Inverse folding.
């Protein structure tokens, strides 16, 4: 949800004094004080780039710009004129050069900080404000001082301004800021932090566009009266109560809902937002580059929500419970042992000729497997070698059955369901398939491990 702020407003001037009774050069000390105030104002928010603007023929502010550039930790540009909506502009000029103020090029910057050196005019503030009333700048601060005064008589004035405007009304607000005076030791202590004020639209009506999408936004008709329900409606009501404004809901014509967003010729609620037919819109939409670009949003808050829909416990099948105590590699080893044992039962050793003959015997692979599972042997071998093989095979199967039954009992005692999935690690270890909407796949494009498990 975005509130479209269309202009700036006027606030009271907050005046404070800083005693500069130091054994330093008066001009340098003044620039240090002003530079410190500018840096603290810029640090109150995160700006993409800070632009410094001054008259090309006036080099008096070069030292001040250099002082600020050394202290400010962030990207800066000088006379670039490449202004973006998240930028801040520090404009510096003398009171005799008001005609230089090219504010029409600033448009929707995040902050305009005007530094004025009052040379001959004392009522400079009103002239600056009259030049700024028609702009669309979100936030404004003015720092003024007189460099011709003595160090112990210098007064630095700072004013902050803002105005909130809707399609139906406009309200001015006064913000009061507090500052710390200079310490007795002579060090300059300036607190220029400006708390975000309580915005009050004073009961002004706002046109809110909605896209009907249950259960987020639901529209029902009760006895000829249209009622709006849903979590997004409740969110809008909470905003209206907090900022003291009334709501007038507007739906897109012809049932277009959100519609299609284009640079020109958008439809639905997208067209209403672009054409300024609503103050703001609320609705559940997927984030995309074209929407974020063409809607000219301010500071957005985007988040993705991942919902796991997994049963609390999946019961094992009877076959899974039987196989569970032994790993796959162990089962392969057991089958190989059965094959070898069945072959040994087929060997006949000729004691006179000392050679081995393979004869067809009554004991087969099935008989060996049956003995492994604890069954009785109907055809007992007569040859001594085969009896030795039988005794060894019975000992092996006895050990295997004992271990198998112990492990199986432990598994059945601990539970007959799979391990519950309680974390992301459990989800990845489970090997289950992911099911997601087509629009959700864009968030996992850089995660091939997840997309391989998508079905």
């Amino acid at each position: 949800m975005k509130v479209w702020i269309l202009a700036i407003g006027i606030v009271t001037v907050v005046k404070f004094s800083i005693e500069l009774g130091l054994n330093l050069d008066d001009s340098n000390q003044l620039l240090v004080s002003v530079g410190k105030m500018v840096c603290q104002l810029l640090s109150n928010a995160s700006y993409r780039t800070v632009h410094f603007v001054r008259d090309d023929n006036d080099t008096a502010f070069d030292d001040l710009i250099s002082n600020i550039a050394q202290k400010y930790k962030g990207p800066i540009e000088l006379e670039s004129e490449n202004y973006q909506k998240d930028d801040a502009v520090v404009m510096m000029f003398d009171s005799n050069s008001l005609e230089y103020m090219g504010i029409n090029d600033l448009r929707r910057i995040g902050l305009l900080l005007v530094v004025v050196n009052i040379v001959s005019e004392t009522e400079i503030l009103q002239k600056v404000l009259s030049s700024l009333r028609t702009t669309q700048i979100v936030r404004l601060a003015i720092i003024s001082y007189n460099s011709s005064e003595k160090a112990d008589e210098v007064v630095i004035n700072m004013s902050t301004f803002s105005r909130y405007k809707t399609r139906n009304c406009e309200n001015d607000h006064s913000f009061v800021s507090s500052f710390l005076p200079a310490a007795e030791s002579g060090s300059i202590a300036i607190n220029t932090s400006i708390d975000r004020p309580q915005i009050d639209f004073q009961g002004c009506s706002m046109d809110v566009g909605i896209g009907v999408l249950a259960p987020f936004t639901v529209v029902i008709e009760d006895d000829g009266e249209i009622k709006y329900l849903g979590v997004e409606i409740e969110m809008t009501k909470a905003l209206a109560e907090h900022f003291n404004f009334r709501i007038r809901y507007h739906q897109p014509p012809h049932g277009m809902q959100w519609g299609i967003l284009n640079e020109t010729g958008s439809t639905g609620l997208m067209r209403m937002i672009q054409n300024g037919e609503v103050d703001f819109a609320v609705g559940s939409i997927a984030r995309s580059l074209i929407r974020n670009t063409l809607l000219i949003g301010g500071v957005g808050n985007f988040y993705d929500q991942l919902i796991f829909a997994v049963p609390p416990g999946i019961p094992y099948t009877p076959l899974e419970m039987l196989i569970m105590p032994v790993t796959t590699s162990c089962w392969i080893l057991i089958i190989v042992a059965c094959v070898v044992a069945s072959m040994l039962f087929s060997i006949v050793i000729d004691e006179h000729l000392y050679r081995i003959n393979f004869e067809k015997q009554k004991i087969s692979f099935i008989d060996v497997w049956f003995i492994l599972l604890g069954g009785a042997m109907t055809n007992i071998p007569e040859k001594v070698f085969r009896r030795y093989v039988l005794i060894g095979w019975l000992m092996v199967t006895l050990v295997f059955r004992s271990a198998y039954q112990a492990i199986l009992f432990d598994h059945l005692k601990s539970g007959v369901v799979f391990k519950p999935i309680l974390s992301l690690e459990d989800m990845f270890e489970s090997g289950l398939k992911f099911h997601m909407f087509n629009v959700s796949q864009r968030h996992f494009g850089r995660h091939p491990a997840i997309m391989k498990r998508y079905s």
